[in-house]
């Protein structure tokens, strides 16, 4: 996609989706490092300042509306029946969180490949990973009537993230792999860790 200066009378983008679509097209053409915010603004037809109303930085664009995503994750975990064993509620929550329609998978694969393989995004990703872990820690703390700073909630958050990232590594390396199948196998180890001894 070639960047173009905004034409007179051209309406400004009004959604995160439009900006993400333009950005990912540029990332595919020029690479993440070779794409600037000005390039993205030009491609969408808005000013650079307008982009900052939607995303705080270029590094935030691959993560989409992550705050809303985390809110949905919290609701997923909160909806788990209270009589469900803890390991099952975490397992199901992570599985449901990563359950995407088939037609969304190509874009999700592209997004995750960029997030997980681009060195420029690694430091930023650590912040997002911490927020994701915190959602699980909050759930575990609530279920155990403890604190998010207790060892178990923090450990479950870290272990869940490690298992999910491992599944994504396998999925991205094999175009025939099915994400939920790989994730089910990986997350299954959490059952052994948290399940009844």
UniProtKB/TrEMBL annotation:
Keywords attached to this entry: DNA-binding, Transcription, Transcription regulation
Gene3D superfamilies assigned to the protein according to its UniProt record, in alphabetical order: Homeodomain-like, Tetracycline Repressor, domain 2
The protein's name: Mycofactocin system transcriptional regulator
UniProt cross-references to InterPro entries, sorted A to Z: DNA-bd_HTH_TetR-type_CS, Homeodomain-like_sf, HTH-type_TetR-like_transc_reg, HTH_TetR, MftR_C, Tscrpt_reg_TetR-type
Recorded GO MF terms: DNA-binding transcription factor activity; transcription cis-regulatory region binding
Residues spanning the membrane: none
DNA-binding region, residue range(s): 36-55
Domain (HTH tetR-type): residue spans on this chain: 13-73
Superkingdom of origin organism: Bacteria
Pfam families, A to Z: TetR_C_14, TetR_N
PROSITE patterns: HTH_TETR_1 (PS01081), HTH_TETR_2 (PS50977)
